[in-house]
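Regression test case RT-17, inverse folding.

Input:
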Protein backbone atom coordinates (compact mmCIF):
# COMPACT_ATOMS: atom_id res chain seq x y z
CA UNK A 1 0.00 0.00 0.00
CA UNK A 2 1.33 3.49 -0.79
CA UNK A 3 2.09 5.95 1.99
CA UNK A 4 -0.68 8.52 2.41
CA UNK A 5 -1.43 11.31 4.86
CA UNK A 6 -4.25 10.44 7.27
CA UNK A 7 -7.23 12.73 7.25
CA UNK A 8 -7.70 15.06 10.21
CA UNK A 9 -10.71 13.17 11.63
CA UNK A 10 -8.71 9.91 11.81
CA UNK A 11 -5.74 11.68 13.37
CA UNK A 12 -8.00 13.20 16.02
CA UNK A 13 -9.55 9.83 16.91
CA UNK A 14 -6.19 8.07 17.12
CA UNK A 15 -4.87 10.84 19.37
CA UNK A 16 -8.04 10.65 21.46
CA UNK A 17 -7.39 6.98 22.10
CA UNK A 18 -4.16 7.87 23.92
CA UNK A 19 -5.88 10.32 26.26
CA UNK A 20 -9.46 9.00 26.59
CA UNK A 21 -9.41 5.35 27.60
CA UNK A 22 -12.76 5.23 29.38
CA UNK A 23 -15.28 7.56 31.08
CA UNK A 24 -12.98 7.91 34.09
CA UNK A 25 -10.31 9.42 31.80
CA UNK A 26 -12.80 12.06 30.65
CA UNK A 27 -13.78 12.93 34.21
CA UNK A 28 -10.17 13.13 35.39
CA UNK A 29 -9.13 15.47 32.56
CA UNK A 30 -12.14 17.76 32.99
CA UNK A 31 -11.83 17.93 36.77
CA UNK A 32 -8.12 18.70 36.52
CA UNK A 33 -8.96 21.55 34.14
CA UNK A 34 -11.48 22.83 36.70
CA UNK A 35 -8.84 22.73 39.44
CA UNK A 36 -6.39 24.62 37.24
CA UNK A 37 -9.15 27.21 36.72
CA UNK A 38 -9.23 27.87 40.48
CA UNK A 39 -12.55 26.15 41.16
CA UNK A 40 -13.72 25.74 44.75
CA UNK A 41 -16.82 23.70 43.86
CA UNK A 42 -16.76 20.86 41.35
CA UNK A 43 -19.88 18.83 40.62
CA UNK A 44 -19.64 15.69 38.48
CA UNK A 45 -22.71 13.91 37.18
CA UNK A 46 -22.78 10.66 35.18
CA UNK A 47 -25.55 8.54 33.68
CA UNK A 48 -25.18 4.91 32.57
CA UNK A 49 -21.59 4.68 33.76
CA UNK A 50 -20.62 7.74 31.71
CA UNK A 51 -21.64 6.27 28.35
CA UNK A 52 -24.77 8.40 28.01
CA UNK A 53 -23.76 11.49 29.98
CA UNK A 54 -20.85 13.07 31.79
CA UNK A 55 -21.28 16.60 33.10
CA UNK A 56 -18.59 18.51 35.00
CA UNK A 57 -19.53 21.89 36.47
CA UNK A 58 -17.16 24.26 38.24
CA UNK A 59 -17.06 27.81 39.58
CA UNK A 60 -13.60 28.61 38.24
CA UNK A 61 -12.34 31.51 36.16
CA UNK A 62 -14.04 30.37 32.94
CA UNK A 63 -12.93 30.70 29.31
CA UNK A 64 -13.46 33.89 27.28
CA UNK A 65 -15.86 33.49 24.36
CA UNK A 66 -13.19 34.32 21.78
CA UNK A 67 -11.00 31.45 23.06
CA UNK A 68 -13.56 28.63 23.07
CA UNK A 69 -12.84 27.45 19.51
CA UNK A 70 -9.12 27.52 20.25
CA UNK A 71 -9.65 25.52 23.45
CA UNK A 72 -10.87 22.45 21.54
CA UNK A 73 -7.95 22.40 19.12
CA UNK A 74 -4.98 20.11 19.74
CA UNK A 75 -1.94 21.37 21.62
CA UNK A 76 -3.56 24.58 22.84
CA UNK A 77 -3.05 25.42 26.49
CA UNK A 78 -2.90 28.27 28.95
CA UNK A 79 -0.56 26.35 31.28
CA UNK A 80 2.83 26.93 29.60
CA UNK A 81 4.46 28.90 26.80
CA UNK A 82 7.68 27.07 25.92
CA UNK A 83 9.30 23.68 26.30
CA UNK A 84 11.50 24.79 29.21
CA UNK A 85 8.36 25.47 31.28
CA UNK A 86 7.82 21.68 31.58
CA UNK A 87 10.66 21.51 34.10
CA UNK A 88 8.70 23.71 36.50
CA UNK A 89 5.06 22.91 35.69
CA UNK A 90 2.79 22.79 38.73
CA UNK A 91 -0.60 22.75 36.98
CA UNK A 92 -2.53 19.52 36.42
CA UNK A 93 -2.96 20.01 32.67
CA UNK A 94 -0.28 21.16 30.27
CA UNK A 95 -0.36 18.92 27.18
CA UNK A 96 -3.24 20.77 25.49
CA UNK A 97 -4.95 17.60 24.27
CA UNK A 98 -7.79 16.88 26.68
CA UNK A 99 -10.67 18.91 25.21
CA UNK A 100 -9.65 18.12 21.64
CA UNK A 101 -9.48 14.41 22.38
CA UNK A 102 -12.78 14.28 24.26
CA UNK A 103 -14.67 16.31 21.68
CA UNK A 104 -13.40 14.03 18.91
CA UNK A 105 -15.15 10.95 20.36
CA UNK A 106 -18.36 12.40 21.83
CA UNK A 107 -21.20 14.87 21.45
CA UNK A 108 -19.41 17.62 23.35
CA UNK A 109 -20.72 20.91 24.70
CA UNK A 110 -18.95 23.57 26.72
CA UNK A 111 -20.63 26.58 28.34
CA UNK A 112 -18.36 29.07 30.04
CA UNK A 113 -18.54 32.52 31.58
CA UNK A 114 -15.74 34.64 32.99
CA UNK A 115 -16.40 36.62 36.22
CA UNK A 116 -17.96 40.02 35.57
CA UNK A 117 -19.19 39.18 32.08
CA UNK A 118 -22.81 39.97 31.22
CA UNK A 119 -23.23 36.61 29.49
CA UNK A 120 -21.41 33.40 28.78
CA UNK A 121 -20.73 31.49 25.56
CA UNK A 122 -21.56 28.00 24.32
CA UNK A 123 -19.73 25.77 21.86
CA UNK A 124 -20.93 22.37 20.67
CA UNK A 125 -18.63 19.87 18.96
CA UNK A 126 -20.27 16.75 17.53
CA UNK A 127 -17.58 14.05 17.22
CA UNK A 128 -14.87 16.42 16.08
CA UNK A 129 -17.00 18.80 14.00
CA UNK A 130 -17.21 22.18 15.82
CA UNK A 131 -20.13 24.52 15.40
CA UNK A 132 -20.04 28.25 15.93
CA UNK A 133 -19.79 29.93 19.33
CA UNK A 134 -23.03 31.51 20.51
CA UNK A 135 -23.86 33.71 23.52
CA UNK A 136 -25.85 32.20 26.35
CA UNK A 137 -26.83 33.10 29.89
CA UNK A 138 -24.54 31.38 32.39
CA UNK A 139 -23.13 31.72 35.89
CA UNK A 140 -19.38 32.33 36.27
CA UNK A 141 -17.45 29.13 35.68
CA UNK A 142 -17.59 26.31 33.17
CA UNK A 143 -19.97 23.43 32.46
CA UNK A 144 -18.73 20.67 30.16
CA UNK A 145 -21.27 18.09 28.97
CA UNK A 146 -20.17 14.89 27.22
CA UNK A 147 -22.87 12.72 25.63
CA UNK A 148 -22.71 9.40 23.74
CA UNK A 149 -19.06 8.73 24.49
CA UNK A 150 -17.44 6.51 21.80
CA UNK A 151 -20.74 6.30 19.87
CA UNK A 152 -18.83 6.52 16.59
CA UNK A 153 -16.16 4.03 17.73
CA UNK A 154 -18.13 0.81 18.41
CA UNK A 155 -14.97 -1.23 19.06
CA UNK A 156 -13.92 1.09 21.90
CA UNK A 157 -17.45 1.24 23.32
CA UNK A 158 -17.71 -2.57 23.40
CA UNK A 159 -14.60 -2.76 25.56
CA UNK A 160 -16.17 -0.68 28.32
CA UNK A 161 -17.17 -2.63 31.42
CA UNK A 162 -20.53 -2.74 33.19
CA UNK A 163 -21.91 0.59 34.39
CA UNK A 164 -21.08 -0.14 38.04
CA UNK A 165 -17.47 -0.92 37.15
CA UNK A 166 -17.06 2.25 35.11
CA UNK A 167 -18.59 4.24 37.99
CA UNK A 168 -16.07 2.65 40.34
CA UNK A 169 -13.20 3.82 38.09
CA UNK A 170 -14.63 7.34 38.07
CA UNK A 171 -15.17 7.37 41.83
CA UNK A 172 -11.58 6.27 42.43
CA UNK A 173 -10.26 9.11 40.27
CA UNK A 174 -12.46 11.65 42.06
CA UNK A 175 -11.46 10.25 45.46
CA UNK A 176 -7.79 10.77 44.62
CA UNK A 177 -8.40 14.34 43.44
CA UNK A 178 -10.55 15.13 46.49
CA UNK A 179 -7.77 13.91 48.78
CA UNK A 180 -5.22 15.94 46.83
CA UNK A 181 -7.35 19.07 47.18
CA UNK A 182 -9.31 19.00 50.46
CA UNK A 183 -9.87 22.76 50.02
CA UNK A 184 -12.22 22.07 47.08
CA UNK A 185 -15.77 20.85 47.51
CA UNK A 186 -16.51 17.78 45.39
CA UNK A 187 -19.89 16.25 44.55
CA UNK A 188 -20.31 13.07 42.51
CA UNK A 189 -23.82 12.19 41.34
CA UNK A 190 -24.51 8.79 39.77
CA UNK A 191 -27.86 8.34 38.02
CA UNK A 192 -29.35 11.04 40.25
CA UNK A 193 -27.89 9.75 43.53
CA UNK A 194 -25.01 11.34 45.47
CA UNK A 195 -22.18 8.79 45.53
CA UNK A 196 -19.39 10.96 46.99
CA UNK A 197 -19.26 14.35 48.65
CA UNK A 198 -16.54 16.29 50.43
CA UNK A 199 -17.05 19.62 52.25
CA UNK A 200 -14.04 21.53 50.86
CA UNK A 201 -13.04 22.64 54.36
CA UNK A 202 -9.33 22.43 53.64
CA UNK A 203 -8.89 19.70 56.27
CA UNK A 204 -7.66 16.33 55.03
CA UNK A 205 -9.62 14.55 57.77
CA UNK A 206 -12.89 15.91 56.33
CA UNK A 207 -11.96 14.77 52.83
CA UNK A 208 -11.08 11.32 54.20
CA UNK A 209 -14.50 11.08 55.84
CA UNK A 210 -16.17 11.98 52.54
CA UNK A 211 -14.17 9.41 50.60
CA UNK A 212 -14.01 6.50 53.07
CA UNK A 213 -16.91 7.18 55.43
CA UNK A 214 -16.77 8.21 59.09
CA UNK A 215 -16.25 4.69 60.46
CA UNK A 216 -13.19 3.97 58.33
CA UNK A 217 -11.79 7.51 58.50
CA UNK A 218 -11.60 7.16 62.29
CA UNK A 219 -8.98 4.43 61.75
CA UNK A 220 -6.83 6.57 59.43
CA UNK A 221 -4.01 8.50 61.08
CA UNK A 222 -2.06 11.51 59.76
CA UNK A 223 1.56 11.40 58.67
CA UNK A 224 3.55 14.15 60.34
CA UNK A 225 5.66 15.92 57.69
CA UNK A 226 9.40 15.45 58.06
CA UNK A 227 11.67 16.79 55.27
CA UNK A 228 13.95 14.14 53.83
CA UNK A 229 16.56 15.56 51.40
CA UNK A 230 14.12 18.08 49.82
CA UNK A 231 11.40 15.41 49.83
CA UNK A 232 8.49 15.92 52.24
CA UNK A 233 5.96 13.14 52.82
CA UNK A 234 2.55 13.89 54.31
CA UNK A 235 -0.92 12.38 54.03
CA UNK A 236 -2.73 9.81 56.15
CA UNK A 237 -2.61 6.02 56.36
CA UNK A 238 -4.98 3.41 57.70
CA UNK A 239 -4.15 1.33 60.72
CA UNK A 240 -3.87 -2.43 60.04
CA UNK A 241 -7.44 -2.95 61.27
CA UNK A 242 -8.85 -1.34 58.11
CA UNK A 243 -6.89 -3.13 55.41
CA UNK A 244 -8.44 -4.06 52.06
CA UNK A 245 -8.28 -6.97 49.64
CA UNK A 246 -6.70 -4.84 46.88
CA UNK A 247 -4.84 -1.58 46.32
CA UNK A 248 -7.78 0.43 44.96
CA UNK A 249 -8.11 2.59 48.09
CA UNK A 250 -4.43 3.53 48.39
CA UNK A 251 -3.40 6.72 46.59
CA UNK A 252 -0.04 8.26 45.72
CA UNK A 253 0.16 12.02 45.14
CA UNK A 254 3.25 13.76 43.80
CA UNK A 255 3.07 17.57 44.06
CA UNK A 256 -0.71 17.16 44.44
CA UNK A 257 -0.88 15.10 41.23
CA UNK A 258 -2.42 11.60 41.46
CA UNK A 259 0.02 9.13 39.91
CA UNK A 260 0.61 5.41 39.76
CA UNK A 261 4.02 4.36 41.07
CA UNK A 262 4.77 0.72 41.84
CA UNK A 263 7.97 1.73 43.57
CA UNK A 264 6.29 4.11 46.04
CA UNK A 265 3.37 1.74 46.67
CA UNK A 266 5.85 -1.07 47.39
CA UNK A 267 7.80 1.19 49.76
CA UNK A 268 4.63 2.04 51.70
CA UNK A 269 3.48 -1.59 51.82
CA UNK A 270 6.90 -2.72 53.04
CA UNK A 271 6.39 -0.45 56.06
CA UNK A 272 3.39 -2.63 56.98
CA UNK A 273 5.55 -5.77 56.94
CA UNK A 274 4.35 -8.23 59.62
CA UNK A 275 1.41 -5.93 60.42
CA UNK A 276 -0.91 -7.08 57.62
CA UNK A 277 -2.01 -10.56 56.65
CA UNK A 278 -0.84 -11.86 53.28
CA UNK A 279 -3.23 -10.67 50.58
CA UNK A 280 -4.33 -7.58 52.52
CA UNK A 281 -3.34 -4.03 51.55
CA UNK A 282 -3.33 -0.68 53.37
CA UNK A 283 -5.63 2.24 52.67
CA UNK A 284 -4.89 5.95 52.73
CA UNK A 285 -3.10 8.66 50.79
CA UNK A 286 0.62 9.40 50.54
CA UNK A 287 1.43 12.97 49.45
CA UNK A 288 4.98 13.55 48.24
CA UNK A 289 6.19 17.12 47.82
CA UNK A 290 9.50 17.86 46.09
CA UNK A 291 10.95 20.53 43.79
CA UNK A 292 9.27 20.31 40.35
CA UNK A 293 12.62 20.08 38.58
CA UNK A 294 13.24 16.75 40.38
CA UNK A 295 10.23 15.05 38.81
CA UNK A 296 9.31 14.62 35.14
CA UNK A 297 5.52 14.69 34.67
CA UNK A 298 5.63 14.41 30.87
CA UNK A 299 6.27 10.67 30.47
CA UNK A 300 2.72 9.38 29.85
CA UNK A 301 -0.09 10.62 27.56
CA UNK A 302 -2.58 10.68 30.44
CA UNK A 303 -0.01 12.01 32.97
CA UNK A 304 -0.57 8.79 34.95
CA UNK A 305 3.11 8.14 35.58
CA UNK A 306 6.05 10.32 36.56
CA UNK A 307 9.80 9.88 36.61
CA UNK A 308 11.96 10.96 39.56
CA UNK A 309 15.50 12.26 39.44
CA UNK A 310 16.25 10.01 42.44
CA UNK A 311 13.46 7.45 42.80
CA UNK A 312 15.30 5.51 45.49
CA UNK A 313 15.49 8.57 47.77
CA UNK A 314 11.76 9.27 47.35
CA UNK A 315 10.89 5.63 48.10
CA UNK A 316 13.09 5.70 51.21
CA UNK A 317 11.32 8.84 52.43
CA UNK A 318 7.90 7.23 51.91
CA UNK A 319 8.92 4.05 53.73
CA UNK A 320 10.39 5.97 56.66
CA UNK A 321 7.34 8.24 57.02
CA UNK A 322 4.82 5.37 56.92
CA UNK A 323 6.77 3.12 59.27
CA UNK A 324 7.34 5.94 61.76
CA UNK A 325 3.63 6.78 61.76
CA UNK A 326 2.60 3.16 62.29
CA UNK A 327 5.02 2.62 65.16
CA UNK A 328 3.84 5.85 66.79
CA UNK A 329 0.21 4.66 66.77
CA UNK A 330 0.92 1.02 67.60
CA UNK A 331 3.31 1.37 70.54
CA UNK A 332 2.34 -1.95 72.12
CA UNK A 333 2.39 -3.88 68.87
CA UNK A 334 4.86 -6.73 68.78
CA UNK A 335 4.97 -7.87 65.18
CA UNK A 336 5.79 -11.56 64.73
CA UNK A 337 9.26 -12.12 63.32
CA UNK A 338 8.69 -15.62 61.94
CA UNK A 339 7.96 -15.76 58.22
CA UNK A 340 5.19 -18.05 56.99
CA UNK A 341 6.95 -20.65 54.85
CA UNK A 342 5.68 -24.20 54.33
CA UNK A 343 8.41 -26.77 55.02
CA UNK A 344 6.99 -29.15 52.44
CA UNK A 345 4.99 -28.37 49.31
CA UNK A 346 1.35 -28.06 50.42
CA UNK A 347 -1.50 -29.27 48.25
CA UNK A 348 -2.87 -25.75 47.89
CA UNK A 349 -6.19 -25.95 46.13
CA UNK A 350 -7.99 -23.30 44.25
CA UNK A 351 -11.02 -21.81 45.86
CA UNK A 352 -13.55 -24.67 46.18
CA UNK A 353 -17.25 -24.32 46.83
CA UNK A 354 -19.35 -27.22 47.95
CA UNK A 355 -22.84 -26.97 46.50
CA UNK A 356 -24.36 -30.40 45.96
CA UNK A 357 -25.16 -30.69 42.23
CA UNK A 358 -28.06 -33.01 42.98
CA UNK A 359 -29.90 -30.29 44.89
CA UNK A 360 -31.86 -27.48 43.33
CA UNK A 361 -30.54 -23.96 43.70
CA UNK A 362 -32.60 -21.74 46.00
CA UNK A 363 -34.72 -19.01 44.50
CA UNK A 364 -33.18 -15.59 45.02
CA UNK A 365 -35.13 -12.39 45.53
CA UNK A 366 -33.90 -10.77 42.33
CA UNK A 367 -35.08 -10.78 38.70
CA UNK A 368 -32.35 -13.06 37.31
CA UNK A 369 -31.25 -15.56 39.95
CA UNK A 370 -27.81 -17.09 39.63
CA UNK A 371 -27.45 -20.83 40.24
CA UNK A 372 -25.31 -22.10 43.06
CA UNK A 373 -21.73 -22.65 41.95
CA UNK A 374 -20.67 -26.30 41.75
CA UNK A 375 -17.14 -27.38 42.51
CA UNK A 376 -15.72 -29.22 39.51
CA UNK A 377 -13.50 -31.46 41.65
CA UNK A 378 -15.44 -31.97 44.84
CA UNK A 379 -16.38 -35.54 43.93
CA UNK A 380 -12.80 -36.45 43.01
CA UNK A 381 -11.38 -34.96 46.18
CA UNK A 382 -11.95 -38.04 48.34
CA UNK A 383 -10.56 -40.30 45.63
CA UNK A 384 -7.36 -38.22 45.38
CA UNK A 385 -6.80 -38.38 49.12
CA UNK A 386 -7.21 -34.66 49.79
CA UNK A 387 -9.44 -35.13 52.84
CA UNK A 388 -7.74 -34.54 56.19
CA UNK A 389 -6.88 -37.52 58.38
CA UNK A 390 -7.94 -37.69 62.02
CA UNK A 391 -5.73 -35.21 63.89
CA UNK A 392 -4.72 -34.88 67.55
CA UNK A 393 -4.46 -31.27 68.71
CA UNK A 394 -1.26 -30.36 70.59
CA UNK A 395 -1.44 -26.59 71.02
CA UNK A 396 -1.39 -23.12 69.47
CA UNK A 397 1.39 -20.85 68.12
CA UNK A 398 1.16 -17.06 68.08
CA UNK A 399 -2.56 -17.34 68.75
CA UNK A 400 -2.87 -17.96 65.02
CA UNK A 401 -1.81 -21.52 64.16
CA UNK A 402 -2.92 -24.79 65.66
CA UNK A 403 -0.37 -27.62 66.00
CA UNK A 404 -1.74 -31.10 65.45
CA UNK A 405 -0.36 -34.61 65.04
CA UNK A 406 -1.58 -36.95 62.33
CA UNK A 407 -0.72 -40.52 61.36
CA UNK A 408 1.90 -39.26 58.90
CA UNK A 409 3.50 -36.31 60.64
CA UNK A 410 2.79 -32.83 61.97
CA UNK A 411 0.11 -30.42 60.74
CA UNK A 412 -0.05 -26.63 61.17
CA UNK A 413 -3.54 -25.21 60.73
CA UNK A 414 -4.28 -21.53 60.13
CA UNK A 415 -7.21 -21.03 62.50
CA UNK A 416 -8.73 -18.14 60.54
CA UNK A 417 -8.48 -19.80 57.12
CA UNK A 418 -9.78 -23.09 58.56
CA UNK A 419 -12.78 -21.43 60.21
CA UNK A 420 -13.49 -19.48 57.02
CA UNK A 421 -13.63 -22.76 55.07
CA UNK A 422 -15.96 -24.30 57.67
CA UNK A 423 -18.34 -21.34 57.62
CA UNK A 424 -18.31 -21.17 53.81
CA UNK A 425 -19.32 -24.81 53.51
CA UNK A 426 -21.97 -24.33 56.20
CA UNK A 427 -23.48 -21.39 54.33
CA UNK A 428 -23.80 -23.31 51.09
CA UNK A 429 -25.05 -26.45 52.83
CA UNK A 430 -27.81 -24.44 54.52
CA UNK A 431 -28.53 -22.57 51.30
CA UNK A 432 -29.00 -25.83 49.39
CA UNK A 433 -31.31 -27.39 52.00
CA UNK A 434 -33.56 -25.33 54.24
CA UNK A 435 -32.14 -21.84 53.70
CA UNK A 436 -29.46 -19.94 55.61
CA UNK A 437 -30.12 -19.76 59.34
CA UNK A 438 -30.59 -16.25 60.68
CA UNK A 439 -30.40 -14.52 64.00
CA UNK A 440 -32.82 -11.62 64.32
CA UNK A 441 -31.80 -8.51 66.21
CA UNK A 442 -33.94 -7.26 69.09
CA UNK A 443 -33.59 -3.74 67.68
CA UNK A 444 -32.49 -2.73 64.19
CA UNK A 445 -28.85 -1.72 63.89
CA UNK A 446 -28.62 1.61 62.04
CA UNK A 447 -25.39 2.10 60.09
CA UNK A 448 -24.18 4.97 57.94
CA UNK A 449 -22.37 3.67 54.87
CA UNK A 450 -19.59 5.20 52.83
CA UNK A 451 -20.50 5.88 49.18
CA UNK A 452 -18.67 2.77 47.95
CA UNK A 453 -20.31 0.63 50.65
CA UNK A 454 -23.77 1.94 49.77
CA UNK A 455 -23.19 1.21 46.10
CA UNK A 456 -22.05 -2.34 46.96
CA UNK A 457 -25.13 -2.86 49.16
CA UNK A 458 -27.45 -1.80 46.35
CA UNK A 459 -25.65 -3.96 43.81
CA UNK A 460 -25.58 -7.10 45.97
CA UNK A 461 -28.88 -6.66 47.84
CA UNK A 462 -30.39 -9.86 46.45
CA UNK A 463 -27.36 -12.00 47.25
CA UNK A 464 -27.06 -10.55 50.76
CA UNK A 465 -30.72 -11.41 51.42
CA UNK A 466 -30.22 -14.89 50.01
CA UNK A 467 -27.37 -15.49 52.47
CA UNK A 468 -29.28 -14.40 55.56
CA UNK A 469 -28.67 -10.65 55.73
CA UNK A 470 -31.86 -8.64 56.23
CA UNK A 471 -30.95 -5.04 55.47
CA UNK A 472 -33.22 -2.16 54.48
CA UNK A 473 -32.48 1.38 53.26
CA UNK A 474 -33.00 3.87 56.08
CA UNK A 475 -32.74 7.18 54.28
CA UNK A 476 -29.72 8.88 52.78
CA UNK A 477 -26.61 6.74 53.19
CA UNK A 478 -28.01 4.82 56.18
CA UNK A 479 -29.31 1.25 56.35
CA UNK A 480 -31.15 -0.72 59.02
CA UNK A 481 -29.89 -4.24 59.77
CA UNK A 482 -32.70 -6.44 61.14
CA UNK A 483 -31.20 -9.94 60.84
CA UNK A 484 -27.83 -11.50 60.09
CA UNK A 485 -26.63 -14.98 59.15
CA UNK A 486 -26.24 -17.23 62.18
CA UNK A 487 -22.55 -17.68 61.34
CA UNK A 488 -21.94 -14.02 62.28
CA UNK A 489 -20.84 -14.20 65.90
CA UNK A 490 -18.51 -11.19 65.96
CA UNK A 491 -19.35 -7.48 65.88
CA UNK A 492 -22.18 -7.23 63.37
CA UNK A 493 -21.25 -3.68 62.38
CA UNK A 494 -17.61 -4.52 61.73
CA UNK A 495 -18.45 -7.68 59.79
CA UNK A 496 -21.02 -6.01 57.54
CA UNK A 497 -18.83 -3.00 56.76
CA UNK A 498 -15.91 -5.31 55.97
CA UNK A 499 -18.12 -7.41 53.70
CA UNK A 500 -19.35 -4.33 51.82
CA UNK A 501 -15.81 -2.98 51.50
CA UNK A 502 -14.62 -6.25 49.97
CA UNK A 503 -17.58 -6.39 47.60
CA UNK A 504 -16.97 -2.78 46.57
CA UNK A 505 -13.40 -3.73 45.74
CA UNK A 506 -14.55 -6.56 43.47
CA UNK A 507 -14.72 -9.50 45.86
CA UNK A 508 -13.55 -13.03 45.12
CA UNK A 509 -15.60 -15.62 43.30
CA UNK A 510 -17.02 -16.43 39.89
CA UNK A 511 -20.58 -15.28 40.68
CA UNK A 512 -21.98 -12.49 42.80
CA UNK A 513 -23.57 -15.02 45.18
CA UNK A 514 -20.20 -16.71 45.59
CA UNK A 515 -18.53 -13.35 46.28
CA UNK A 516 -20.98 -12.51 49.08
CA UNK A 517 -20.66 -15.99 50.60
CA UNK A 518 -16.84 -15.91 50.62
CA UNK A 519 -16.75 -12.43 52.11
CA UNK A 520 -19.36 -13.23 54.77
CA UNK A 521 -17.50 -16.40 55.80
CA UNK A 522 -14.15 -14.62 55.91
CA UNK A 523 -15.20 -11.71 58.08
CA UNK A 524 -17.30 -13.90 60.40
CA UNK A 525 -14.44 -16.32 61.10
CA UNK A 526 -12.19 -16.19 64.14
CA UNK A 527 -9.11 -14.05 63.60
CA UNK A 528 -5.41 -14.52 64.03
CA UNK A 529 -4.48 -13.31 67.51
CA UNK A 530 -7.50 -14.92 69.17
CA UNK A 531 -6.55 -17.38 71.90
CA UNK A 532 -8.42 -20.68 71.74
CA UNK A 533 -8.87 -23.25 74.48
CA UNK A 534 -7.93 -26.87 73.82
CA UNK A 535 -11.61 -27.96 73.46
CA UNK A 536 -12.20 -25.07 71.00
CA UNK A 537 -9.21 -26.12 68.92
CA UNK A 538 -10.35 -29.74 68.91
CA UNK A 539 -13.84 -28.74 67.75
CA UNK A 540 -12.40 -26.52 65.00
CA UNK A 541 -10.21 -29.36 63.71
CA UNK A 542 -13.12 -31.82 63.93
CA UNK A 543 -15.27 -29.58 61.75
CA UNK A 544 -12.41 -29.02 59.29
CA UNK A 545 -11.94 -32.79 58.99
CA UNK A 546 -15.58 -33.04 57.88
CA UNK A 547 -15.24 -30.42 55.13
CA UNK A 548 -15.30 -31.53 51.54
CA UNK A 549 -12.55 -29.12 50.54
CA UNK A 550 -10.53 -28.58 53.72
CA UNK A 551 -7.17 -27.50 52.31
CA UNK A 552 -7.97 -23.92 51.23
CA UNK A 553 -10.17 -21.07 52.39
CA UNK A 554 -12.58 -19.23 50.13
CA UNK A 555 -9.86 -16.79 49.04
CA UNK A 556 -7.55 -19.62 47.99
CA UNK A 557 -5.14 -19.42 50.94
CA UNK A 558 -3.97 -22.75 52.40
CA UNK A 559 -5.58 -23.84 55.64
CA UNK A 560 -3.05 -26.57 56.40
CA UNK A 561 0.70 -27.05 56.11
CA UNK A 562 1.89 -30.65 56.46
CA UNK A 563 5.35 -31.70 57.69
CA UNK A 564 5.71 -35.42 57.11
CA UNK A 565 7.42 -37.82 59.49
CA UNK A 566 10.16 -38.38 56.90
CA UNK A 567 10.74 -34.62 56.63
CA UNK A 568 10.93 -34.31 60.42
CA UNK A 569 13.52 -37.06 60.56
CA UNK A 570 15.56 -35.42 57.83
CA UNK A 571 15.42 -32.06 59.62
CA UNK A 572 16.77 -33.66 62.81
CA UNK A 573 19.44 -35.70 61.01
CA UNK A 574 17.82 -39.06 61.67
CA UNK A 575 17.94 -39.92 57.96
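Golden output:
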Amino acid sequence: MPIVRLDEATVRRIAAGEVVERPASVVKELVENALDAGARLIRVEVVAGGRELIRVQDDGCGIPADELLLAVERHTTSKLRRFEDLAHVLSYGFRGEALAAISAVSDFEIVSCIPGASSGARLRVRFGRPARVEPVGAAPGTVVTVRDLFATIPARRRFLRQDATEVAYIQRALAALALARPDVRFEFIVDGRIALATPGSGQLVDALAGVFGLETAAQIVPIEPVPHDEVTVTGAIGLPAVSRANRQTFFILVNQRWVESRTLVAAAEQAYHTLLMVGRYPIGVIAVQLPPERVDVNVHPTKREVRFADERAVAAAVHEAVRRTLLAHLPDQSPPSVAFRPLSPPAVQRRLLVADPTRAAPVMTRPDPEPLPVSPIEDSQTESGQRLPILRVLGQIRQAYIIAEGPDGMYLIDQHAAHERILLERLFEELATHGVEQQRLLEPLILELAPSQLEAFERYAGELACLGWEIEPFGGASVAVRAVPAVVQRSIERVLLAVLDELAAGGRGTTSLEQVAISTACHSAIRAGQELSLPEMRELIRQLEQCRAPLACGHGRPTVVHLSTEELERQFGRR
